[in-house]
Amino acid sequence: MRHIVAIFFFLCSAAALAQHRIPDPPSGPTPACPILPGVTNVQITGDAGPDFWTCTATHLSSGKKLFDVYVGNHPPRFTPGSRYGGSTFARGRALVWFVTPTGGWDKPRVWQTFLPTGDERLSIMVVSFTKTGPAELDRITPLIAHLRVGH
Question: Alpha-carbon distance 143 to 106, whole Å?
């Protein structure tokens, strides 16, 4: 009787596996840090993790760090206490921002937005930067909206 039950479960499992199709490996460019097509004064560099990238955008002339980008399928958690901070629109993209509650505009805040990549392997970019005033957010939004999956 045990053998009949085992054979029954084996056949049911085989039928279930036959119905489940494992997706083909994604084709396309090798995942990497995002790029800014046509932008020559910003360099984006980073390191690969097992299934993600952590990248930093730096202004070439000043050496100033502009923002950080996580690219992968398992984005980092929000900074504790983050809340909706507003929306901006640039280059045909709407960016929804989340901000840490550190006080007024005169205090540094971490801003984060989430951008889909359109790539199955690395499905989201999380962009983070620290700014103190609303004018800084308006200046950096067009640059962040221009990010594309790296090649």
Answer: 23
* Contacts of 89 by beta carbon, 8 Å cutoff, 6+ apart: 95, 141
DSSP state, residue 58? E
CA distance 75 to 138: 24
**Integer Cα distance of 95 and 148 in angstroms:** 14
Mean pLDDT (the chain, rounded): 76
pLDDT digits (tens, 9 = 90+) for 52-76: 889 999 999 999 999 999 988 877 7
Residue 78 CA: distances (Å) to CA of 81, 87, 146:
8, 17, 23
* Token pair belonging to 22: 């494992």
E strand or H helix at 136, and its extent?
A: helix 134-145
What's the pTM? 0.71
